[in-house]
Protein 1
Amino acid sequence: MRAAPPADSRLGALQRGRGAGARAVLADLEAGLEDVLTCVLDDPRIDRQVEARDDYYAALLVAAQVDPGPIAEHIRKFWDPRMRKAILAHLDAGGSGLDPSVRDALETLKKAA
């Protein structure tokens, strides 16, 4: 298991769901987006069902108007085909509850398929 970054670093604060991480990203979007994408694409949580930072990360990505390509690529490479099929079916059914950045990533994924 790899060591977590220090809690007082931007990445460490983001991974721990701390507001200081979000404020640091919003203060310098260009520099902070890499850390947000790291959190999304290499989720540090052991059990995603215990807590949810998805909205926290998504809000930062939406604020930064991030390119959905890396998220779509992550879904294409690492998600089980049944999971991809299910989320795309959810999108086709209206996508209730999907954040705009997730919706954009799924649309990108759909176009590439």
Protein 2
Amino acid sequence: MALGDRSAFDASPRSRRRHRTGTANVKTLDKSGKDNRHTDRQSVDRRPGRRLLTLREAACYLGISPWTLRELTWKGSLPVVRMTRKLHFDLQDLDRFIEAAKDRL
């Protein structure tokens, strides 16, 4: 093989792979033609009948960090539901907290 001959390298499967750069969203469709992308972390699963959110989900819902949400709970500013060791938050309580925090002009 000559020094300038790259045909042996170009035929390898590795050379055909492309490196994906950036964070562009790739749109994938399922068989029915609906968008099949996963939602981002800030999206909250809003299934009908789902009333309790985990600590992380509630923090995303309020737009604050989980640690700040823990501190609000410890101070008594926000009620918490403890069915197990995990902290759960009622959507209605979160909405009341948001309404109380609004500035009235």
Protein 3
Amino acid sequence: MAAGLGVNKKPVIPKSIKIGGKTYKVRFFNRDELRKNLFGQIGLDAQEIRIDDSLHQEKVEQTITHEIIHGCEHALGKDFNEETVTALGELLYQVLMDNNPWWGN
């Protein structure tokens, strides 16, 4: 059996994620503390991924994946529009879910 999720086991959200050689802390905030009522955001200078603490588990995972795409965008020196980031984030999330997520054992 491949490493990954067991039956009925929730993924563990990592405390940090490395993107392009930089380590981003994953932190949870009250929705009022996030810009523009977003589910999450990446602070490139602060090197942190901020997530709305009221989200359910699956939405947290999807939001982290979306913010990872923004981090990759920055690491590559690219400027994707939000529609592209959302599409890539949704696709990557589905790939991870279909092949055992990297954030839990």
